[in-house]
Amino acid sequence: MTAPVYFVSGIDTGIGKTFATGYIARLWNEMGKKTITQKLIQTGNTDVSEDIEQHRDLMGMGWFPEDETRLTMPEIFSYPASPHLASQLDGRDIDFEKIEQATRQLAENYEAVLLEGAGGLMVPLTRHLLTIDYIQQRKFPVILVSSGRLGSINHTLLSLEALKVRGIELYALAYNLNDESQDELISRDAATYLQGRLTEHFPDAQWMEIPVLSAGKSNGSCVSGHTDTQDSD
After folding, report:
1. Of 33, 34, 39, 139, which one is the catalytic site residue?
2. pTM above 0.85, yes or no
3. Half-sphere exposure of 209 toward its Cβ, with a 13 Å CA cutoff?
4. CB pairs under 8 A, 24+ apart, for 102-107?
5. I need a labelling partner for 44 at 20 to 30 A (CA). Which of 27, 73, 87, 94 fits?
C-alpha cells in the first residue's frame, strides 16, 4: 500500500470511535495531509454506513467519490450486532478480499487512511477471527480511543496490554473529551494516569485529545503531549 493505514479501535462500544475518526481526518486534511476514512464492517445499516456519514459531517468535506462507489464502506450488514453475528443473520460471509482491495485502492490515492473498526479489539469478525487478529495480520498501527468515564482506566490498560502482547504498534491514544465522567476529579485523574502509562510503556505513541465540537467547529487542537500529528510516515 502507498499510504499508511491507521486502524481506529476503542476500549469498548460507544467510546466515540466514529467521532474521533472523523475529527482526526478533518484535522489531518486541514494540516495538508490528504486523508480519507473507511469503515471495516458496518452493522445495523442497509445501503449506506451511518459511521461514514458522521465522518463526512465532522470533516465538512462533503461526500467523496469513493463513498459513492462504496470503497469506504465495502461490507454492510443490517443487524446491529458484532460482525460475526450480523453476517450470520444476513446469511452471507464477510468478504475480506473485497475489504482489502478497497483499503488498498484508498491507500493508493490518499496520504493516510483511517480504518474504523466495530467495537473493541476483541470483537469477533467471524467465529474464528477477532478484530485484533485482523490488525496483527496486516500490521496496522492502532489509534486507540479512550475517555475519562468511570472504568476507562481498566478497559484502556487491558487494550494496551493486548496490543503489547501481540506486538502491535500503538500509534496514538485518543482521549475523547466528549465522553468524560460527570465527576471532574475522576476525569482529571484518568487523563493524568493514562498519560503517565503512555509515557512509561509506549514512549513512541502520541497522546491525542478529541475536543468537544460546537456548530461544526473544533474548539482547540486534537494533540497535546508526546508529538505533533503531522509527522512523517
Report:
1. 39
2. yes
3. 21
4. 102/38, 102/70, 102/71, 102/72, 102/74, 103/1, 103/5, 103/38, 104/1, 105/66, 105/71, 106/3, 106/36, 106/38, 106/66, 106/71, 106/72, 107/1, 107/2, 107/3, 107/4, 107/5
5. 27
Enter the CATH code of domain 5-14+22-147+161-218: 3.40.50.300
Give the pairing type, strands 213-214 and 217-218.
Answer: antiparallel
SS (H, E, C) 72-129: CCCCEECCCCCHHHHHHHHCCCCCHHHHHHHHHHHHHHCCEEEEEEEEECCCECCCCC
In terms of C-beta distances under 8 Å and separation of at least 24 residues, what long-range contacts does 165-170 make, across chains too? 166/132, 166/135, 166/136, 167/136, 168/132, 168/135, 168/136, 168/139, 168/140, 168/141, 168/142, 169/139, 169/141, 169/142, 170/141, 170/142, 170/144, 170/202, 170/205
Please state, in angstroms and rounded to a whole number, the distance separating the CA atoms of residues 185 and 102.
Answer: 44
Does 39 participate in catalysis according to the annotation?
Answer: yes
